[in-house]
Amino acid sequence: MNTISPELNSSLLEQLFSAATHDASTAMCRWTNGQITLTLDEIAEMPLEEVSTNLDLGDDLLTMVALTLQGELGGTMLLTFDEENGRSLAASLLNRPRATTPEWNELERSALNETGNILGCAYMNALTRFLDAELIPSPPYFLQDFGASVLQQALMTQALTCDTATICRTTFRREDQALDWNVLFLPTQGLRDRLMNCTTA
Predict the structure, then answer these.
(1) pLDDT tens digit sequence for 141-150
(2) b/e map of 85-124 (b: 16 or more CB within 10 Å)?
(3) Contact residues for 177 (Cβ-Cβ < 8 A; gap 6+)
(4) Which side of the chain, N or C, has fewer Cβ within a 10 Å radius?
(5) What is the CB-side half-sphere exposure of residue 172 using CA atoms within 13 A?
(6) What's the whole-model pTM score?
(7) Considering only CA atoms, which of 135, 177, 174, 151 is closest in space to residue 20?
(8) Each residue's pLDDT tens digit, 93-129
(9) Which stretches of 56-163 are DSSP H helices?
């Protein structure tokens, strides 16, 4: 059952992200030959300083694919994996055994970047339709670091314009198995205000 935080309590916003998640799931299903699907669990807002604790990312090595939106209606979308799930996805997409070397090679990075691109475009296309304003994400880029450090890199710029993160919690599944992936969406204050105005109009 989807849960919306009190500040975002709007059926329109829930419909928006449900539609975006549905589009993303369809795209992921095509991209992974039917292996991966996703469903929306919750939309919530929280202070930036609480995000790391709330997501319980811990101090394990994380892999992240990030996309950014420039301008007033900007923001950042992050797709995070633990090492096991990130490596397994890359191996599946490349149709080769899971790599065991410490460093990610260029093909593995490219496979995850394209995954982030597919998810990001699905979400941004839904936002574009909803806001009637074109949102163009940057090319995805690959980051790797430890737990809170990964998240801090993404939140650093966000803190200049907004002190709140909007989180779309999702469940990713490979067949019937839940995967340890997270999608984190961080709109700028301008985009957040536009979303709020649209959902309360």
Answers:
(1) 998 877 677 6
(2) bbbebbebbeeeeeeeeeebeeebbbbbbebbbbbbbbbb
(3) none
(4) N
(5) 22
(6) 0.79
(7) 135
(8) 888 888 888 888 999 999 999 998 988 888 888 888 8
(9) 83-94, 106-131, 147-158
